[in-house]
Amino acid sequence: MSLFSILYYLLALVLYVLALPVLLFKSRNKKYSKAIPARFFLKDNSSFKDSGIWFHCCSFGETKAIAPIVDKIDDIVNISITTNTGFDEASKLTSNVRYLPYELFLPFWINKQKLLVVMEAELWYMLFLSAKIKRTKTILLNARISDKSYDSYKKFSWLYKRIFANIDKVYAQSDLDRQRLEELGAKSVEVIGNIKLSTMPKVTKEYKRPKEFVITAGSTHENEEQLILDAYDSSLGKLIVVPRHPERFDKVALMLEEYGKNNSLTFHRFSQQEDFSSDLVLVDKMGELNNIYAISDAVILGGAFEKIGGHNPVEPAFFGCKLISGEHIFNQKPLFEAINDYKIVKNEELKDIIKDIKNLENSSLDEIGDITPILNDIKGIK
């Protein structure tokens, strides 16, 4: 190890000792009761036994993004993460899931793997150094340096140059990201777009688009339909409601039917009449959401006006819909970052924004990612 590596390791040790009281205190919190003992005390967190393709992700969104890649791998898949939501999502992809230990433990925790693929900004010095010492090929995937973080990266360029010295290949999201990464010392950088956009929505059945302006309330939850109805003005166009859970179809049907009667609007259930001739339509059939987005002008995306965490904004953005979401998008933030022109509003702001819905910009996607290069890298590993 170099002098820098030794000093870095000693600093990590000092920080660990200083942080011990805080770690012990926080580990009593249910939210951290698994992650902190696993990451900082190696509790029930042994090394990966078998050599395979090792992915490291930070959280839920990044873990979800690697699913299309993992699905195509005919090899042992190991996944390390740093958050509880990431751990739960990774467990759907493989049984070999670990919390990534604090850097202090990585030199003796890591075993040789065929390949280490690290998502986005998880630039841990000891992670890449220890992997290289164990003769593991390293890749940084979906790399991006935003305008907001660029200055911060430049201030610590002396550190990032040493990190990138141990990364064999970098897949960047855009040409601008490539330029910035190379300034920081990254080598062998290839632009493949945002892999979170590598799997696009598909239309399974084409419906005739209504002449009127169409507003779709998609993937709605309890209380959200009423909020949307209170903000809705029938002069703007048709309203199509697609609840997230089928067990709520009957309840939402009664709500829409009553609203229609009180406001002299027509209503029907899609399961009984597969068209959009009424002013209000309840889509009470599963698997229709993308088909509905395809004929929509605007989408009010559910799951974020209540503290659910939001739903996938890529789907309405793919179809170029004007897009409105509530503020509770904590499970979908990485996907919203891949979208242009959308509105995040508080519940009390929804009525005002809907009044101007026809003047909103249509949402769109950043450059769509291609996972073929990374799959070819994986296939080439022996």
State the assembly state of the protein chains.
single chain
Low-confidence stretches: none
**Strand order across the biggest sheet?**
3-2-1-4-5-6-7
> Span from first to last CA?
27 Å
Number of helical elements: 17
Helix content: 25-40%
Structural class: alpha/beta
Strand fraction: 15-25%
Largest sheet: 7 strands, parallel
- What's the alpha carbon Rg, rounded to whole Å? 24 Å
Mean model confidence by pLDDT: 94
Q: Sum up the overall morphology in one term.
A: elongated
Number of strands: 16
How would you describe this protein?
The chain has 382 residues and is of the alpha/beta class. It has helices at 3-26, 35-41, 60-65, 67-70, 84-90, 106-109, 125-133, 147-155, 157-164, 175-183, 224-231, 249-262, 289-293, 314-318, 333-336, 350-355, 372-379; strands spanning 53-56, 77-81, 97-99, 115-119, 137-143, 169-172, 189-191, 214-220, 238-243, 267-269, 280-282, 298-301, 322-326, 339-340, 343-345, 364-365. It has a seven-stranded parallel sheet with strand order 3-2-1-4-5-6-7, with helices on both faces. A seven-stranded parallel sheet has the order 10-11-9-8-12-13-15. It has a two-stranded antiparallel sheet with strand order 14-16. Helix 7 runs parallel beside helix 9 (157-164). The chain is elongated. It starts with a helix and ends with a helix. The mean pLDDT is 94.
